Amino acid sequence: MLTRDSPLWRFHRGMDTAIRPGDRTVTVPPAAAAAGALHGALLESRQRWQDLAALAADLVFETDNEGRFTFLWPDTVLGHRAATLLGRRADSLLLGAGPNPFALRQAVRHHRAWVADAARQPRCLSLSLAPLGDARGGFAGLRGAAHDVTDQETAAATAAA
């Protein structure tokens, strides 16, 4: 959404042209000003999505077509420094012999999976996953968001016992 104080709004306002009947003039901002406005808008948009991701999930990630992490947010994931998990197979965190959610090729929401945190303690994640495609329509990896629902799962197991 454009707001009057956003860099993108200022960029759009700067790009407005006043063409009236009989008026043949067009005003275009200097390239540097346009590039600066676009850069500011990009940074604002990136920050907005990062803020929304933080509100919506405990972690967000992407994997490549081999199931290796290529993107992780935030900087600490389940006690691991995110940088140490990059390039590592996502399924290496799984506990137990259940199905591998990182091998899925279709979108899922609220899929529960038990994983190990950095201290090798079990954590239950509620995963929402969407497959990524390459230019030829092939599988390129997964994009995902996860909530740590360990406390809810533990409480439910205790209540059921």
Core attributes:
alpha+beta, 161 residues, Beta-Lactamase, two-stranded antiparallel ribbon, five-stranded antiparallel beta sheet, 2 domains
Distance between the termini: 49 Å
* Oligomeric category: single chain
CATH superfamily of the largest domain: PAS domain
CATH architecture name of the largest domain: 2-Layer Sandwich
Per CATH, what is the topology of the largest domain?
Beta-Lactamase
Strand line-up across the major sheet: 2-1-7-6-5
Structural class: alpha+beta
In the CATH scheme, the class of the largest domain would be Alpha Beta
Count all strands and give the number.
Answer: 7
Query: What number of structural domains do the residues give?
Result: 2
Major β-sheet, in short? 5 strands, antiparallel
Shape: elongated
Helix % is 25-40%
Q: pLDDT average, as an integer?
A: 84
Protein name: PAS domain-containing protein
InterPro entries: PAS-like_dom_sf (IPR035965)
Structure description:
The chain is of the alpha+beta class and 161 residues long. It has 2 domains: 7-54; 57-160, PAS domain (Beta-Lactamase, 2-Layer Sandwich). 31% of the residues lie in helices and 28% in strands. It has helices at residues 7-15, 31-56, 82-85, 150-160, and strands at residues 59-63, 69-73, 76-77, 80-81, 108-116, 122-133, 139-148. The strands form 2 sheets. The chain has a 5-stranded antiparallel β-sheet with strand order 2-1-7-6-5. The chain has a two-stranded antiparallel sheet with strand order 3-4. β5 and β6 (122-133) form a beta hairpin. α1 (7-15) packs antiparallel against α2. It starts with 6 loop residues before the first helix and ends with a helix.
